[in-house]
Amino acid sequence: PRLISSPRPPSTILTTRTNVEGSVRLRLSAPPDRRRMRISALTLLAFCTSASAFSTQSNFNGRAIIPSRVSSPSRAARGPTNTNLSSSTSADPAIAELYNRKSRPEYIPGRIDDPDYVRIFDTTLRDGEQSPGATLTSSEKLDIARNLAKLGVDIIEAGFPIASPDDFNAVKQIADVVGNEVYDDGYVPVIAGLSRANEKDIGRAWDAVKGAVRPRIHTFIATSDIHMKSKLNKTPDEVIEIAVNAVTFAKSLGCDDIEFSPEDAGRSDPEFLYRVLGKVIEAGATTLNIPDTTGWNMPWEFGELIKKLRENVPGAENVVFSTHCQNDLGLATANSLSGALNGARQLECTINGIGERAGNASLEEIVMSLALKGDEQFEGGPGSGKLYTAVNPVYITPTSKMVAEYTGMKCQPHKAIVGANAFQHESGIHQDGMIKNKSTYEIMTPESIGLMRGDSQSGAGIVLGKHSGRNAVGTRLRELGYDMDPEKLNAVFARFKEVAEKKKGGLDDDDLESLVSDQAGSVNELWRVSGLQATTGLSGIPTATVKMVGPDGVERFVSATGTGPVDAVYKAIDQIMGVQVVLESYSMNAVNEGIEALASTRVVIVPTTGGPNDSAVMDAQTSQLREKKFSGSGSDTDIITSSARAYVSALNKLLTWKIRRMANGDALPVDTTGVANAIAIDGEKPVVVTN
Q1: pLDDT value at position 338?
Q2: How far is CA 242 from CA 173, 198, 222, 228, in A?
Q3: What distances in angstroms separate CA 189 from CA 145, 313, 322, one per listed residue?
């Protein structure tokens, strides 16, 4: 279904905060005195899988969302742990169905009873970890493996056990834990270990994976001329003998699920591939993986190779053909899909497409391509041509974020499916279409892959920038509470265009409200500076006396000291207004040249977490909880006065924002003391100035 997320109820937000504070993966993104917490990928996953956060509408027919397929497999016989996804117990039938595991044919090594079913083989923990700088700890690998199981991938290649004792232990832990967690529908992932074609490697791999309900050994040897001559220094006949011996030894250990890969098959002689693959089938291989190791092939070229192998390899009908495509030419996903078109029924891929050099085929791209186009674009191979997988795409985003966080390899903003810009729109024409009908520019919803956009950015991923049109600006202003007549909107829009030309990254709500304040006077000026005096010097203590008029019309003043004159002024203002904020940024520029130049100051403040002005909001792009930022600008020929005006402007925005969003429209309490929120200093009460 096309999913539309609803705003989270307050209880959900409170639960999320509790999870953050108690999470093992808690991380601070700022010094402790600011206490601005970000949700870790684990907590994000917990939120994204909470069905209470979503509502749905059913108008999308993609099988990746709610498929209807063959009955689920029977439960494994080894007495493994049962696993249940709590979100599937939601009272909303549409939500419950969304989080149900997708049905799939019973898992049988070397055979798929439904010729339209495509197995997803995830190698994030093996090939993905081979990306430079992407080293993972054993506990991080276990976390990712569990998320892959929630996704519903058919096979998890957990690592290369012979590589190191830590790799062995990580693979064994995944096999013993994730490989024994059977879901209510009987699903449990196959756990595979990679090995070279020698007995030591194969024995080590088997020791690591044999504890799983469904263990697999994946062994390989190179078959291209350049690899056999330059790397292996072996003849073709010697390579065939090594390959056959490797598969035979794996089978002798008791493994009945053996995958064989002819490394660099994309550059190998097809006639030689017919020979070596036929021999390993005779020896007991159940899956033949055809790697385009260097990303050399074109999609039509690689698809034709798969077709020829299926037609010419002796015993091809008794095995499952697989693809493993590298992305050196940016064609990994296209080559994988071409392989599926020509009969491959296992596709190897990684989360976010990470891997050696330019990476691997991207799991999210493959899965969503089959979800959206599998019904109509894959005729010609075995079966009806209506291809499907059992991956549940609603877990794509949390899994992607977890992999990015743990590996430290962030996705480029324009990465398909999971990039920060994948569901963002800045062009005015696009924004107008999105406001009217989201299907005009989105072929899938962000909610369908677990990215809950909610009501932020007009619920349509709209980024207000220099290309934005009047409709997008006007729509966002109305959502912020500004109901303007056309004349005022025109004035704000004209100023918006001027600012957007100079500011990269678009304008956020704070900037937009600032423009409204400048052009339309819509922001209430609750407090204003009516007087200011500051003293400083090499030997004296910087001191400031600030006089302000509050919303009740009463004038108050307070003196304070600081590390400098601006700091002293800001501390005095804090005490008068009764706020607790962190000054995140401060900048000053001269509007023009000369001694008479006007100083223009800009500040950005963040309310202190847990303070009286706490303003936690959910970031639309990162889905992380953060304190809302407020900016202010001020100008004056005196730099101290300019700084004070900017600071008070930002504080007024904070207070106005809080008032506008007060529950049930509660008004500010009426102050009858004349002191309001002013705070006493040095034992003296704030002084009320009367006329």
Answers
A1: 97
A2: 30, 8, 11, 12
A3: 10, 28, 17
3-state secondary structure 525-585: CCCEEEEEEEECCCCCCCEEEEEEECCCCCEEEEEEECCCHHHHHHHHHHHHHCCCEEEEE
CA–CA separation, 251 and 281 (whole Å): 12
How large is the angle between the packed helices 565-577 and 639-660, nearest 10 degrees? 30
170's CB contacts (< 8 A; 6+ apart) are 125, 136, 138, 141, 142, 158, 159
Tokens encoding 149 = 């199981």
Q: Cα angle vertex 17, ends 15, 18, to 5°?
A: 65
Residues 6+ apart with CB under 8 A from 464: 426, 472, 473, 476, 496, 500, 506, 507, 508, 512
pLDDT tens track for 578-589: 888 999 999 987
The one-letter amino acid at 242: I
The DSSP output letter for 190 is E
Block residue for tokens 């899994």: 399
Residue 6 Cα distances to 54, 65, 169, 274, 336, angstroms: 6, 19, 43, 55, 36
How confident is the model over 547-578, as pLDDT tens digits?
A: 999 888 899 999 999 999 999 999 999 999 98
Q: What angle (nearest 5°) sits at the alpha carbon of residue 162, between those of residues 160 and 164?
A: 90
pLDDT at residue 511, as a whole number: 65
Q: Which long-range contacts (CB under 8 A, 24 or more apart) does 378-383 make?
A: 378/340, 378/341, 380/341, 380/342, 381/340, 381/341, 381/342, 381/343, 382/115, 382/343, 382/345, 383/114, 383/115, 383/116
Distance between terminal CA atoms of the chain? 66
Task: In whole angstroms, give the CA distance from residue 650 to residue 628.
Answer: 12
Q: What is the pLDDT of residue 364?
A: 96
Burial of 71 (0-12, 13-18, 19+ CB in 10 A): exposed
Give phi and psi for 105, each to the nearest 5. -65, 155
CB-count exposure of residue 483 (10 Å: 0-12, 13-18, 19+): exposed
At 491 the pLDDT is 78
Match 């402007």 to its residue by tokens.
649
SS3 617: strand
Q: How far apart are CA 644 and CA 415, in angstroms?
A: 43
> Which parts of the chain register pLDDT below 70?
1-99, 133, 425-427, 431, 435, 452-463, 478-484, 495, 499, 502-506, 508-511, 513-524, 591-598, 615-626, 635-637, 660-691
Give the tokens for residue 267.
């550059």
